[in-house]
Amino acid sequence: MAGRLCGVAALILKDFPEAPYIHCYSHQLNPCVAKACAIPSIRDMMDHVRIVSDFFNNSPKRLEDLSTKIVELCPTSSFQKTINVCRTRWIERIDGHEAFIELYPAIIASLTCIKENETWNYQSSSDASAYVTICCSFKFIITLIIVRKLLGYTRPLTKTLQKVDQDFSKARDDVEILKNTLLSIRSFIEISHSEWYKEAVTIAATNYTLPSKPRTCRQQTQCGNHQVDDISEYYRVTCSISFLDHILTQLDSLFSLENLTLLDSFAIIPSNLISDKKWRKKVKEFAHTYNNDLPEPSYLYAELDMWEVYWKNHSETAPKTISDSLQKCDGNTFPNISTILRILCTVPVTTCICERSLSALKRIKTSLRNSMTDDRLNGISMLHIHRDVEINLNIVVDEFATAFPQRMEFKNILNSDE
After folding, report:
1. Fewer Cβ atoms within 10 Å of its own Cβ: the N or the C terminal residue of the chain?
2. pLDDT in tens, 360-391
3. pTM, 2 dp
4. CA dihedral of residues 17, 18, 24, 30 (deg, nearest 10)
């Protein structure tokens, strides 16, 4: 769906042009990070951060050595260990980069100790030798700083999109704020990159690492082979501008104008229209797109006026969700609004609940019982989900006895005649 070609989405849009492709709002920014990994320097840096983090976290002995170095060199740090850079949860990837930078002196000191101390085994010393060389390179340091700085701007939007009770109007505003902020940085990238470059030089100086750039060739066969002599200018072109353009492109694709219009249409929810003076205009723009689906589009203006008056007089009981609004909407009085609410109910907001259900499957099924049939698993899942439904055990026993009479024939083990 969110691949390079968007094959499935393109096929659906071909037959149903009014069904826009909407990625899960809780994971919208994840593809931005994933696709940014196509930039070689950023992809390599992210892989190295993940590998070094796993190097410490997968060994209690190495983790203890790192903890000792953290107490000595980073006593005020809020992190006590490196954070595993998750491949799918991009916000944890940001936290992982933040922790790596804050604990950078301790990480280098621990890797150097493991490398030079003969008490460590050969594999650990060999890996530490390779990792300390990578982490001390100026290319790794400045790329880490640039990625951490740019992804930091997306963090507030992440918290908004991953809330249980998402405010769509606020989410739309946050998306616009993020886009405008990144565009402003893009316009004055020289100033921002200069600050990031100075920070990278300061960090590199702690390891006696001098600023440097890869050598270039006359004939360019790679995107990173820019004919630039200045080191700061080289990383501005290859890292800062490339990564920022990637994020902006993906934001425009995932948060398109059509999708943002869908977000605006949620102003029809009674709890939103009470405080939003422009709600009627937003709903009309949405209704214009789906005009053919409305039963009586010429009377929509009248329904909107009546809808507003009714809920302003009943503001204490105004619903806050689309599903609740649909339940309290009289289809005979508000046929067009009822249709709009049904359309909005089909808008996929988040897949977190569906994905979280896979993690919660262990509550009803253990790893040693994978032979459980689909019917039984589905039945147990329904019981687990719909806990508010009362179960009459007598009826259950009667149904079981009727369906499997042979299983109800018990033998009396105390009777020796049988």
Report:
1. C
2. 666 666 555 555 566 677 777 777 777 788 88
3. 0.69
4. 40
